[in-house]
Design a protein that fits this description.
It contains 12 helices and 14 strands. By secondary structure, the chain is of the alpha/beta class. It folds into 2 domains: 233 residues, Type I PLP-dependent aspartate aminotransferase-like (Major domain) (Aspartate Aminotransferase, domain 2), CATH 3.40.640; 124 residues, Aspartate Aminotransferase, domain 1. α9 packs parallel to α12 and α10 crosses α12. The chain binds pyridoxal-5'-phosphate. The site of pyridoxal-5'-phosphate has 15 residues, from α4 and α5.
């Protein structure tokens, strides 16, 4: 059996450091908004090359609080990728704005900058590029359109910790970057967590206030804030994990390189492409096949775990029936949702396991005709 992702093994690789972090917090007597959070925030800001990092409760809150801090709200439209995890859309909805989907480039699966301008209306206030699957979106043309039209740019970095765009780490290209530290992400806590990074001091300060009841000084509330804090335990656990992130990302890249080699030329199988501006971190290794469900079934029978990211496009979810975007309105994204399949990838996956997946995929496609 080759699991899709072996989280137990990933965390076991750093067991002693994680136990030490837990004991440090346990014995400190201080569990929310303390030293561990401060250290993690400055370490993660440095890592990303951003001036500021504000820890929050999860990735969705990071997106929501970044939008709120930028004053995006009711009546506003926010451009989002048609092809993303639904959290990106939900963030726009939670601030009272309307998510407006833009189709992806079918090769990179990321937002196609050439399609942005056609989606802009007088109500458009922001664009949210997602670095999907760990592949940086093409930020420069997106930022150029945003500048021309006075739009804010909030990046969704939930799948791309450590990825670089044109040689520079993600973290402060746009106005803000929202991060998730959900356990399965490349930088994952042992529970929920998130952060916002930015070079804008005033924006960071607003997120800091919003995450903590709208309060800078205890029991003095300036705005209607929320409770969304990265707790001391998760911050302490993330610190040793940040120190191994580059090494773990390199191991993911080695798995991806082996897949690209071993799966080249398999008939009907679409492989991920890496744009020349991108240094991806391979959160997922996503292939495409016209008979995706049959492929997934054969791989499951061969003991290979796969996951579909994602089976239903956001605009076709019951939650977004309210937008009235019928099937057929976003054909590129819809086709991707029908064809994508994520193969096992992770920092503890062995070469033997990777080779076994390659053999299983070749075998499965061969018997599918
Ligand atoms: C995981 C994820 C999120 C949400 O993060 P949570 O911490 O689970 O709230 C947002 N966007 C993308 C693209 C994600 O993959």
């Amino acid at each position: 059996m080759i699991p899709f992702l072996d989280l137990r093994a990933i965390n076991a690789a750093q067991r002693d450091e994680l136990v030490a972090a837990f004991e440090r917090v346990l014995d400190s007597g201080w569990y929310v908004m303390g030293q561990e959070l401060q250290h993690f925030e400055s370490e993660y800001a440095d890592y990303c090359g951003a001036a500021h990092c504000v820890g929050v409760g999860n990735g969705l809150d990071a997106l929501v609080l970044a939008l709120r801090a930028l004053d995006i709200g009711p009546g506003d439209e926010v451009l989002v990728p048609a092809n993303t995890y639904i959290a990106t859309w939900l963030a726009a909805s939670h601030v009272g704005a309307t998510p407006v989907p833009v189709e992806p480039d079918p090769e990179t699966c990321n937002l196609d900058p050439a399609r942005l301008e056609a989606a802009i209306t007088p109500r458009t206030r922001a664009v949210m590029p997602v670095h999907l699957y760990g592949q940086p979106a093409d930020l420069d043309p997106i930022l150029a359109v945003a500048r021309r039209h006075g739009l804010k740019v909030v990046e969704d970095g939930a799948q791309a910790h450590g990825a670089r765009y044109k040689g520079r780490r993600l973290g402060a290209h746009g106005d803000a970057v929202a991060w998730s530290f959900y356990p399965g992400k490349n930088l994952g806590a042992l529970g929920d967590g998130g952060a916002v990074t930015t070079d804008d001091a005033a924006l960071a300060e607003r997120v800091r206030t919003l995450r903590n009841y709208g309060s800078k000084v205890k029991y003095h509330n300036e705005v209607i804030g929320t409770n969304s804090r990265l707790d001391e335990l998760q911050a302490a656990l993330l610190r040793p994990k940040l120190r191994t992130l580059d090494e773990f990302n390199r191991r993911r890249a080695a798995v991806a390189a082996r897949y690209l080699e071993g799966l080249a030329g398999v008939p009907g199988l679409g492989l991920p492409t890496v744009a020349d501006f991108a240094e991806p971190v391979w959160h997922l290794f996503v292939v495409r096949h016209a008979r995706r469900d049959a492929l997934a079934q054969r791989l499951a029978a061969a003991g290979v775990g796969t996951v579909i990211h994602y089976p239903v496009a956001p605009h076709l979810q019951p939650a977004y029936a309210v937008l009235g975007l019928a099937r057929g309105t976003l054909p590129i994204s819809e086709r991707l949702h029908e064809q994508v399949l994520s193969l096992p990838i992770g920092p503890t996956q062995t070469e033997d396991q990777t080779n076994a997946v390659i053999a299983a995929v070749r075998d499965a496609v061969g018997t599918m005709g």
